[in-house]
Design a protein that fits this description.
The complex is a heterodimer of chains A (368) and B (295). By secondary structure, chain A is α/β, with parallel strands linked by helices. Chain A is built from 15 helices and 14 strands. In chain A, helix 3 links the parallel strand 1 and strand 2. The longest helix of chain A is centred in the first third of the chain and has 29 residues. Chain A is globular, with a radius of gyration of 25 Å. The N terminus of chain A is likely disordered. By secondary structure, chain B is mostly helical. Chain B has one domain: MetI-like (MetI-like fold, Orthogonal Bundle). Chain B contains 13 helices and no strands. In chain B, helix 3 crosses helix 4 and helix 12 runs antiparallel to helix 13. The N terminus of chain B is likely disordered. The chains are: A alpha/beta (368), B mainly alpha (295).
């Protein structure tokens, strides 16, 4: 074998050839890294999620059972989630967690794949949370409800009279002025304001907005803050406020051990039912794994883990969720038939009404 | 001494054009910076401008996103709130930072200055979000301040400090005093002691020397810090979001609100461009002072 002295001894080589050689090596290494990366990516499941799906206690059993890595990216708000998808390459994402009412938006954009109903435990779901009007489009199921709960009145039962919490009127009266926080999401709280003035959340129109705005302003006048999830939860937990408008089990259940005084009510006027769904992307390169993931999340074990996720608790959509008795008690599992009968659906406005609702919310926030 | 050299115009007078390689070198050196600016400022800005002129439903070009800002009082109010908060924060930060920087530069012995400066900027080392949440706990109804006030008998009821504009201002001032201290300190250190000696020789007292000599000469440092404070403060989302309790909206919050659920990037872009126009006006108004020269 002959040895090229230029290669064996870099010091004797011309600078240009050294540079070329280094560039070749760098290119080869980069290509190798990219190839390894894309191979790893092909075996992974990429999920656009809400924070409750980031809990390792939820993901690990699936990863170990299927030998895959679940890469998650959290987002808040359907608009932000859709923007991530639009900025990605087709096939980058496999599954998405989404507000059930927003599934038609994804279908309209051609993002989602129909789900095989025969391979999902639809018969085990609470009938009221199937949300077929949103999750089924043109006869095809594009999403399955995985978790639900209520935007209602969350409160500290040692600080307020629980009997007062049986009516939404308590939120606008003088008794609890300065002791109230409002959850900063316009759709559910506008739904609660609608309930307070005797409107049905599914029938809201632009003509209802002035009365809703008036009700919101009364709530704001009583409120100490209007906070997103963490801020409103912290305010209730630390005693900064005693009542959270829009709160529910998603705020109180996760804190039950540390703060058993926190509770929620479904007032006489009703509450707003929230629900989140799982959808599969049409361009997913791992549709089999994606379906397995959805099946796992919808299984009794997955449902129990999702319901009690570290980020926030919520009711599992599957009635057979493997929850302990204590967990069921915290979630008030046995009271669900009554709660569901009294709850009204999340407002699902069209784009124009949605914009007008957000403007009403903006005006409420700016009101002094 | 050659007068041309003094005026700084003497060097390339060789009568010969630079060789081609020599002419290309400055461009080669400046290309990475130009490329960076083009890629990460000009192109995104053009894209944002384009987006701001499109309808959310994709129906074509429109000025509706801009007209919405000027016709909806709630949107307009967000700008008023932002300007008020930014002005308050900038003034308070300057008033606190100047004496602090003065003490560091003039009263602290030279060998301790580095340590003192490091201690002064220590809060920079913690996460911005964590720092804001920490303030929330300090200012809360059951927080340190309220406990001290009610415990000492000064107040019978806790004050509402958290979730107010005051809380937002406190959070901002805590951060920007450090930034301003650094810029003013640097300016004070550049100031030759001869100026003060000369003023004293001419009979000026300490107050007069400060007002007529030191302050005017350190004005560029103050203005640079104040401008940075203005730019960073008016565009900040985290502090008002965590500490303000959403009891009023500032412009960055209004921008974010358009994106969360509705994904209305055209309106968010229009609001961002309006915000940027305000920053540009602030720059133009203060440009004459934004030049630090060695004193």
């Amino acid at each position: 074998m002959t040895i090229n002295p230029d290669i064996s001894n870099p010091t004797t080589r011309k600078p240009l050839s050294v540079l070329k050689s280094h560039l070749h090596a760098a290119c080869a290494a980069t290509a190798l890294l990219l190839a390894t990366g894309s191979l790893a990516q092909a075996a992974d499941l990429n999920a656009l999620i809400w924070c409750d799906h980031a809990d390792p206690a939820l993901l690990q059993p699936f990863e170990e059972a299927n030998g895959v890595k679940v890469n998650v990216k959290e987002f808040e708000g359907t608009g932000a989630g859709m923007a991530i998808v639009e900025q990605s390459q087709p096939g980058d994402w496999d599954v998405m967690v989404i507000d059930s009412i927003d599934i038609p938006r994804g279908v309209e954009k051609g993002l989602f794949e129909p789900l095989p109903e025969d391979k999902l435990p639809l018969a085990d779901l609470f009938p009221q949370v199937k949300m077929d009007s949103s999750t089924v489009v043109d006869g095809k199921r594009y999403g399955i409800t995985e978790k639900f709960g209520y935007n209602t009145i969350g409160y500290n039962k040692t600080k307020v009279d629980p009997a007062d919490m049986q009516s939404l009127a308590a939120l606008t009266g003088d008794k609890y002025k300065g002791k109230v926080a409002i959850y900063d999401y316009y759709l559910p709280v506008i739904g609660m304001a609608a309930l307070a003035i005797g409107k049905k959340t599914a029938e809201l129109t632009e003509a209802d907005l002035p009365a809703i705005k008036e009700e919101l302003l009364k709530m704001k006048a009583n409120a100490k803050l209007v906070g997103e999830v963490t801020a409103s939860q912290t305010a209730l937990a630390t005693g900064e406020v005693d009542i959270l408008v829009g709160g529910g089990e998603w705020v109180t259940a996760g804190l039950a051990k540390e703060n058993p005084a926190l509770d929620f009510s479904i007032p006489r006027e009703g509450a707003v039912l929230w629900s989140q769904s799982l959808a599969m992307f049409k361009d997913s390169k791992n549709k089999d794994t994606a379906l397995k993931f959805i099946q796992y999340i919808m299984s009794p074990e997955g449902q129990a883990r999702l319901a009690t996720s570290a980020c926030y608790w919520g009711m599992p959509a599957n009635t057979k969720a493997a929850l302990s008795d204590e967990q069921k008690k915290i979630l008030r599992f046995d009271e669900q038939p009554d709660f569901l009968a009294r709850a009204q659906p999340y407002p699902a406005p069209d784009a124009d009404l949605d914009k007008k609702m957000q403007d009403v919310w903006t005006e409420m926030l700016q009101a002094q | 001494m050659n007068s041309a050299t003094n005026s700084g115009r003497a060097l390339p007078r060789t009568g010969r054009a630079l060789p081609r390689a020599g002419r290309a070198l400055p461009w080669a050196l400046v290309t990475p910076a130009l490329g960076w600016t083009l890629l990460f400022f000009v192109l995104p800005f053009v894209a944002m401008g384009f987006s701001s002129l499109t309808a959310h439903d994709g129906s074509g070009f429109t000025l509706a996103n801009y007209s919405q800002f000027f016709t909806n009082p709630a949107y307009w109010q967000a700008m008023v709130n932002s300007l008020q908060v930014t002005a308050i924060v900038t003034v308070i930060s300057v008033l606190l930072a100047y004496p602090f920087a003065w003490i560091l530069a003039e009263q602290v012995p030279e060998r301790w200055q580095r340590l003192a400066l490091m201690l002064a900027v220590l809060p920079f080392w913690t996460s911005y979000v964590v720092r804001s949440y920490s303030w929330l706990l300090v200012l809360a109804q059951n927080g340190v301040i309220n406990r001290a006030l009610t415990g000492s008998g000064l107040f019978s009821e806790p004050l509402q400090l958290a979730n107010t504009r005051l809380a937002t201002v406190i959070g901002f001032v805590h951060f920007f005093v450090m930034l301003l201290t650094l810029t003013i300190f640097a300016n004070l250190k550049q100031l030759s002691p001869s100026y003060r000696k000369a003023a004293a020789d001419l009979g000026a007292g300490p107050v007069r020397t400060f007002l007529h000599v030191v302050l005017p000469l350190t004005l560029p440092g103050i203005m640079v810090g104040a401008f940075l404070t203005f730019v960073l403060c008016i565009g900040d989302y985290i502090t008002p979001q965590i500490l303000g309790g959403n009891n009023e909206l500032l412009m960055p919050q209004l921008v974010m609100m358009q994106i969360g659920r509705r994904g209305d990037f055209p309106l968010a872009s229009a609001l961002s461009i309006i915000l940027m126009a305000v920053v540009t006006i602030a720059y133009l108004a203060s440009a004459r002072w934004l030049k630090i020269e060695r004193a």
